[in-house]
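Journal club side-thread
Mid-discussion, someone asked how the predicted structure for our own chain would compare to the paper's figures. Pasting it here so we can look after the session.
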Amino acid sequence: MIRSLFIPLLSLSLIISGPKSLALGDFDGEVGGFWWLVDSEDLLDTSLNTQATGGYANVWWRQTWGIQSALYRVDKEKVDMAPDQQLVVDLERRLLSATDNSYLAAGLGWEANRFGEEGSASGPRVLADARFGLLGALYVYGKAGWAPDLKSLGQRRDISSISVETGLVLDPLPFLSLRAAYRYHIIDYTEAATSTDLRESSYGILFGGGVHW
């Protein structure tokens, strides 16, 4: 699995990290994958952590406007009421931008949470995103998203979502990024049959990497 993801990313990096004349000008971006060692309050087998894969991509224009997306997955056989997949797509605007690796941004996006065979609950979300450079090739980051109205699905009414992720990123090579982070994803809803407010959460460490230009 690791080799199958790393080789295509490395090949892509060799293409996009060429001479400046071949660069993308005003655009900066990154694409990569990760493994999420996720636990959940709703895991059917609490003795095991679910090892899930995912991916992310982002593009910034003149370090001002950006589009970011990410896909987080959990083995659907391991969870019951919690989502087994979350897909987010966000449009961001940097509010402060000291350097490429030090900025504060906010934006609006769209989020879809899939609950196995039942289908998906989706809706708009707001987000905040920040980075702070430490030693040039090392920076910390944090991002949070809130989707207040994901409608209803099955017995779930008034679904909402909060996701928070924070971690460290190291750039050992000019085109390569390695990351380790902690992520928390909360789903709140009201159960239709009992009118009881319930919360399902998935959380854990993720690590991975990608290529950037």
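Post-session note: Confidence is low (pLDDT under 50) at residues 1-23.
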